[in-house]
Automatic annotation (TrEMBL):
Protein name: Small ribosomal subunit protein uS13
GO molecular function: rRNA binding; structural constituent of ribosome; tRNA binding
Biological process, per Gene Ontology: translation
Region feature (Disordered): 97-122
Known partners and oligomeric status: Part of the 30S ribosomal subunit. Forms a loose heterodimer with protein S19. Forms two bridges to the 50S subunit in the 70S ribosome.
Family the UniProt entry places it in: Belongs to the universal ribosomal protein uS13 family.
GO CC annotation, single: small ribosomal subunit
Source organism, top-level taxon: Bacteria
Keywords from the UniProt entry: Ribonucleoprotein, Ribosomal protein, RNA-binding, rRNA-binding, tRNA-binding
Xref: NCBIfam families: uS13_bact
Described purpose of this protein according to its UniProt entry: Located at the top of the head of the 30S subunit, it contacts several helices of the 16S rRNA. In the 70S ribosome it contacts the 23S rRNA (bridge B1a) and protein L5 of the 50S subunit (bridge B1b), connecting the 2 subunits; these bridges are implicated in subunit movement. Contacts the tRNAs in the A and P-sites.
Keyword tRNA processing: no
Gene giving rise to this polypeptide: rpsM
Amino acid sequence: MARIAGVDIQNNKKVEVGLTNIYGVGRATARLILADINVDLSKRIGDLSEQDISAIRKFIEDNLTVEGDLRKETALNIKRLMEINCYRGSRHKMHLPCRGQKTRSNARTRRGLAGKRGIKKK
């Protein structure tokens, strides 16, 4: 297993897909990383040399914000929105969707199951 940015990546995965296990790296970013380092997209993690893995590690450390730092930055951004009492911050406080979705019939993941139970008839 290769360890990149504090995440273990399985040897049987392709490099492009394996890099997406790192929080903050998606398919597009993984392709950019591999194109910059000149690594073939069809290779598997287990087939990479130690030089390739160290080059990927160095590129991510130098150019990207990933894992713990990115999670902390996101949490601080949400906390700032709540402190300044903007609309998005108030939606975060009330555990409601803050990107304009309707909440009358959906939004179960944000609102929970309480609204689904309904009112009992007498």
